[in-house]
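YM 10:42: 2-dehydropantoate 2-reductase sequence, as discussed on the call
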Amino acid sequence: MTDQAQVTWHILGAGSMGMLWATRLARAGLPVMLIMRNAERLRTYKAAQGLTLVEGEHSQQFAIQAQTPDSDGPIQRLLVTCKAYDAEHAVRQIAGRLRPNAELILLQNGLGSQQAVANLVPQARCIFASSTEGAFRESDWRVVHAGHGHTWLGDSDQDCPPTWLKELQQSGISHEWSSNILTRLWRKLALNCAINPLTVLYNCRNGDLQRHSDEVNVLCVELSNLLAHCGHAEAAHDLIPEVNRVIQATANNYSSMHQDVTQGRRTEISYLLGYVCAAARDSQFTAMHLQALHQRLSEHLQQHGLPCA
Ligand code: NAD
Ligand code: KPL
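YM 10:58: structure's back
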């Protein structure tokens, strides 16, 4: 591995985001290797002969190489695109293959999973990402790029941007290096906590929360106070107007948590509201409304046969 440009993008988690990144990197001619969950997934992938990216009317298939976690070969660069609750276990499976100076890019929503992965691989550089891209799986091995967004990447330990950012540029992946990625992640976390659980409990689109603005605003005030208490005041700046702006801007959409629940999928609650409530408990901050919301959401998920963690 002498030429930086030839480093393979190993992608762990061939779901919506993994496929979205893999296909765009491959389209730019960059080496990509998908890491499938197990031999059965690898077999069905090989039968499909590649990943298909759908953008508007246009679709294109890419015959990207794939393997399983127990395959041979060192990993220098790893994009982790599992759900937050799977990330630590998935990285543990390939940890022995990471080169000593490997770089991991963690694309999980919420907070908590990134720290768990970083603790697992202290020899590697962990870059955290926060993305507003929208993608969903139309079927196995076929991803729809539904919303063109932006991805912020950053490293809370070293502020030096990696040289491979130019490969994202080359691949048309809209991005920027952020010197305050934790602030970004906390702010996104606060937005998601103020919006997503209520859309599940009221079974409504984001815009319908305008009818529950008192409840939204009370949560925003408590979130702002908690973030300030935890040393993240900047992430809470003008949270009420920002949350209301997002509710209006995405009025017609169902939140990602609402989509998970209606499709019977496990949510990332532990890395969103669960993380915020744990942060409050750990810092002896009374977060009455957030705790009550967490309780209501957990009960709701249980009633729908979904895990509440
Ligand atoms: P997804 O469920 O579509 O994909 C996750 C993939 O990881 C699945 O294919 C699963 O089989 C795979 N996986 C799980 N454990 C594995 C293991 N041990 N080894 C290999 N593969 C494994 O999820 P997604 O929608 O792509 O979301 C990934 C993350 O990105 C989430 O944290 C989500 O909140 C965040 N995100 C998603 C979007 C979006 O539009 N989809 C947008 C922004 C952020
Ligand atoms: O990020 C979101 C989500 O649905 O997860 C928005 C639309 C901002 C709502 O919190």
